[in-house]
Amino acid sequence: MYNHIMFPVDLHLPPEVRKAANVAAEIAKWQGAKITVVSVTGTQPGDPVQTDATIGDNLREFADHLAKNSGTEVAFQNIHSVDVAVEVDADLAKAAEDIGADLIMVGTHAPRIMDYILSSHAGYLAKHARVSVFVVR
Hints:
Layout: E1 4-8, H1 15-31, E2 34-41, H2 52-70, E3 74-80, H3 84-99, E4 103-107, H4 121-128, E5 132-136
Parallel strand pairs: 1-2, 1-4, 2-3, 4-5
């Protein structure tokens, strides 16, 4: 049913990401699907500046862990953004098309007050992505 799962990841690894990673691993194992871990990074106020090498190391470590849990091929990709807060949603939707994913597996939090005004990242992907989106709460 699915051949290529895109898994967007926040490198701060909030609990939503860890839970969704477990679900992505199980679905990939069940479907024999490849996973591509995608991160969108940039310099944000209050965040320590990370080098491309550090980001790559963090993504590789996460991808290796996911590959071990899923038993499938796991690739990773970082997208550099000038303004992550503004560009992340569109960057992720475009990345799914660019890599040929047929499923986006994304973790999300329970709705907060701002989610009724502005969509969450998962909500944006569910509305705008051209492929199936599996939201894990």
